[in-house]
Write a structure and sequence with these properties.
This protein is of the alpha/beta class. The chain has helices at 5-14, 21-33, 47-58, 73-76, 82-95, 102-109, 119-122, 140-152, 183-186, 199-209, 215-229, 239-251, 259-265, 273-280, 283-286; strands at residues 37-41, 62-66, 78-80, 115-117, 129-133, 154-157, 161-164, 170-175, 190-194. The protein is 49% helix and 14% strand. Helix 1 crosses helix 3, helix 10 packs across helix 11 (215-229) and helix 10 packs across helix 12 (239-251). The N and C termini lie far apart (49 Å). Strands 2-5-8-1-9 form a 5-stranded parallel β-sheet.
Length: 288
Amino acid sequence: MTDSPEELAAALDATGYLADDGLATAGFLALRMGRPLFCEGEPGTGKTSLAIALATALERPLIRLQCHEGIDAAQALYEWDFPRQLLHLRALEAAGDGHLDVEAAERSLYTERFLLARPLLQALTAPCVLLVDEIDRADDEFEAFLLQLLDEHAVTIPEYGEVRAEHPPLVVLTSNRTREVHDALKRRCLYHWLEHPDLAREVVILRRRIPEIGEVLARQVAEAVHRLREMDLLKPPGVAESLDWARALLALHRDELDAASAARTLGAVLKYSEDLDRVRAKLDALFA
């Protein structure tokens, strides 16, 4: 385990993730205090990438639960393997020549042998980084379901009993703030709001993640993306879009970004037709 925020920042840096002082401190405290880290911010600010980088830096497996509307325990925690249970019952009947001890058979059905572990249950069985991605897409009931896991690093399966982590996972929850997450969940977490990186940091990210990019093109892409974020767009570009744009330009053998090359590659950085139309109308001013 790292002994300071600075050591954690250096470990993340070695994976290619550049964390500022605030984020490195939040990650360090989550590790030291054994608390989940709740990260909110605009799409593309590096929330999911943080969990991936933490798993790499800490040399732990990453277990990811992608949230969506209607997600429930069967998808997130466990399922019983009904086909295998049915085959097991038939085998017991055959072995007993048609006579079946019902209570013993029922007990034998709800064992680890027939338990299909989903991400949350997997995260309780070995040291790992658990990413609960886009929790704002799940509903209130699922949030409430998570509380025991966040409080106790344990879950209760009615037919099986309690499963408690011997080595609690480092939990990272992310939200794009499409809705407000309830206070009961936030109270159990350390909180950090992720901003888009400043210009200098974004240039460094581009050069770190795309070693073949030149200083001039990296700076031009970062400057253009920052100007796009200041416009009234439906979806301002994140760091992922900056990287895509730079790779698209390199694929076209461009070593500088101008209005003409931008017009040809805007689909790498903008993902709504309304945004494309708005930016195309202002390309000359954008690159003046």
